Task: structure prediction
Amino acid sequence: MSNKHLLNKDGLTEDEFLKNYKPGDYERPSVTVDMLIFTTVDKVSDNIKKLNEKELKILLIKRKDHPYIGKWALPGGFVDMHESLDEAAYRELKEETNIENVYMEQLATFGTPKRDPRMRVISTAYMALVPSNNLNPIAGDDADDVAWFTVSKTNIGENKSILRLENEEKNAVIEYEISEKHCKKGFSTVSTSEYRLLESSPDAIAFDHYEEIDMALERLKNKIEYTSIAFNLVREYFTIAEIQTVYETILGRKLHRMDFMRKMKNKIEQTDLLCYEKAHRPAKYYKLKDDWASVF
Amino acid sequence: MSNKHLLNKDGLTEDEFLKNYKPGDYERPSVTVDMLIFTTVDKVSDNIKKLNEKELKILLIKRKDHPYIGKWALPGGFVDMHESLDEAAYRELKEETNIENVYMEQLATFGTPKRDPRMRVISTAYMALVPSNNLNPIAGDDADDVAWFTVSKTNIGENKSILRLENEEKNAVIEYEISEKHCKKGFSTVSTSEYRLLESSPDAIAFDHYEEIDMALERLKNKIEYTSIAFNLVREYFTIAEIQTVYETILGRKLHRMDFMRKMKNKIEQTDLLCYEKAHRPAKYYKLKDDWASVF
DNA sequence: ATAATAGTGTCTGTCAGACAATATCGT
DNA sequence: ACGATATTGTCTGACAGACACTATTAT
Result:
């Protein structure tokens, strides 16, 4: 069981080994976390009868210093030596949005050597889904500005799509053309994507963050089909129309109301609350069933 | 478009900034990749009529030095400053098994501060699936030994299972009891697992590698349902019985032959080759359809 | 004769997409 | 009257689990 007594080739016990151990002098990469914080907000319609549309939003910061000075980027920061990756991600989320206890999952880790021109940086991306509240994000030290960007990915044909990030207030529109390519790995074929900034876009996204955003959108699109994570993007009480438009914007297509409702029937339950926001029959508020929150 | 002319708060252009940039003196974690290399092998039956069973195997090395000296561990190693994470993973795979062009995907990144007692280590785990050939793995510098371990995870009731790693030849049996716990994050509940080494096991797995193995098994179990990755665990030509037992061992339950076949019908196609290995009607060899290899 | 492959067909229930029809409500 | 919610119902096709049955083959 214990290996306290075992000696290595130099005749050292584990305690002696650890006491004498000096981490090599070789260079080490910096380790950071990137935060992909999503929410949905109502695109308020003037028409007092028309419903509000939902828009998927992602939080971006405007970089204060080189490299990519003045460009929009994902929030994030260095991982302290004493904290785990998850802890670093929670800390960043708290710093940026001042909220806690929201859904979060690790996405993937990006480690291409030249992704940061300053030095070697390994970034673990985390995706957080926060309820659609009137959140006022806070610009950190490294940021001149911070804003919610409308994000969408729309297919424009055979293995091609457009990733679009927009914020009207900041007068920012950033578009990438994504081309999927397939190559064989063993007996499976994996697809890799190439990203090209469209000429129409005045500004690029910093680093390889467009790739991280794309991956998060794909993960979202897959996961809302077999989990309940989409409900993290709305408030505790929601109307069917509300959650349906969330699904529609993430999936990028319209859904049939009653088919959608049937699919949701086992996940949600009615409440007594009514929504009197528009000039027609009030919608019932629903909530996630307690037992369904736990399934996946 | 370009930001070459923009000046930061110190009045520096990007070129000037990068030329003068000195990475801070602060400590950095070491970055490694851990390789979860899976394959299946036939558990040959003496009975000339009985079929061979398949066993899922994972490659482990025996550590040569502290910490965890003499313990079995996942192969892996440090990421060089000039290579990406993917490249590091491919290099390790090549070093360990001398094979290339197999299916591989990034699993997750583990970065708890004390997972390595020597220093802070961030490990990105990669899962590779290699065809069931008679592979002779090679022990690296850091290893006294290397071997394929039979791996299985069996449910023993309410949120409890046993992770079992075994190699008869090396006289090694390692068993962990896994307890799943659920906690709320936002409106979803995520499950975390706790691992307890069973008293019956003489040896533990090094580091937190049991956790990585568990995560890989869960990923496998999920992914074989909606992708074709399982076919990477057998040779190019296989019998239905063969691929079915692969599914059965990964899912941990028996499947009905013809139902399984129907499900596979669109993924596989017959060949003219016959399998004369056992004393009964020869089985046809099948192969993955070319167009199905690309789906997912 | 045995033990396995390779396939047929059948029965059942569920589920998803599509859409029709209706009652209700607020302005 | 308008525009939206809320709900029931119908029709279809696909699919999945389960199992029975047959024909074939190598030793």
